[in-house]
Write a structure and sequence with these properties.
Layout lengths: L2 E11 L8 E3 L5 E3 L2 E2 L4 E2 L2 E9 L5 E6 L5 E8 L5 E7 L2 E9 L5 E7 L2 E9 L5 E7 L2 E9 L5 E7 L2 E3 H6 L2 H65 L1
Antiparallel strand pairs: 1-6, 2-3, 4-5, 6-7, 7-8, 8-9, 9-10, 10-11, 11-12, 12-13, 13-14, 14-15, 15-16
Length: 237
């Protein structure tokens, strides 16, 4: 169970997952326009922000649920050096987000239970790329890979390995195009979430610093009051 290093403050935040643009409120949270494309109206939700340190020493800054568990949009910093910016659910990466891996590679797309699953786009440090389906962190399903030599392969992948027979038999229009489109849409959604998650990161850190500052002021006042009481007691004696 993660433990929170600073208590979160409930703040009213209008979050836009499609058109971020905002002004800072007095309590350090962000107010952002949210337009619901289906309903055609603004929506307001109340979120709680906190800084959370897990038992594996990873640190999360962003939205949490009532129990202080990462839930919503935020940034997860791994002790091993990877960074995830996106959606969380019950303490795990769930939904769309962007992960910068320790080796410099990036994955932008859908996550389930902490790993890449669904549709997404992977870009390696050598320029290699994969666009398509994922299962449990591996390329699995229909997708398109481009290696460092710019050789493109459209195939059905089985746990990261392309099935060569499918590379010959697959039709782009009938079998591949839709999966590539869904992966690109997932990538775009992940990038939008990344932008808002980074702002949640800033908000949570500012909130933590503000809380620490307030505690410091209270401690100084307490110390001063204690000093005055000591002086009065000494004078009375």
């Amino acid at each position: 169970m993660p433990t929170s290093s600073a208590s979160g403050t409930v703040a009213s935040i209008r979050s836009d997952r499609s058109r971020p643009g905002s002004s800072v409120t007095s309590h350090g949270a962000k107010e952002e326009d949210h337009f619901d494309e289906n309903e055609g109206r603004d929506l307001t939700k109340t979120v709680k922000l906190a800084t959370v340190t897990s038992t594996d020493r990873s640190t999360y800054h962003g939205e949490v649920n009532g129990d202080g568990v990462p839930d919503g949009l935020g940034v997860l910093l791994s002790v091993f050096g990877s960074t995830y910016s996106g959606a969380m659910k019950n303490g795990k990466k769930n939904g769309e987000g962007v992960e910068l891996q320790t080796n410099g590679a990036t994955y932008s797309g859908e996550f389930r239970d902490g790993v890449a699953s669904g549709y997404g786009v992977y870009v390696g440090i050598l320029g290699d790329k994969y666009v398509g389906q994922w299962v449990d962190g591996s390329r699995h399903g229909v997708g398109v890979s481009v290696d460092a030599e710019a050789v493109m392969t459209a195939a059905h992948f089985n746990m990261d390995e392309p099935e060569l027979a499918s590379a010959v038999s697959l039709s782009w229009e009938a079998d591949v195009q839709l999966h590539v489109l869904r992966a690109v849409l997932a990538e775009n959604a992940a990038i939008r979430n990344q932008e808002i998650a980074r702002q949640r990161h800033v908000d949570a850190v500012v909130q933590e610093m503000t809380t620490i500052g307030k505690l410091y002021v209270l401690l100084c006042r307490y110390s001063r009051s204690l000093s005055l009481l000591t002086e009065v007691s000494f004078a009375a004696s």
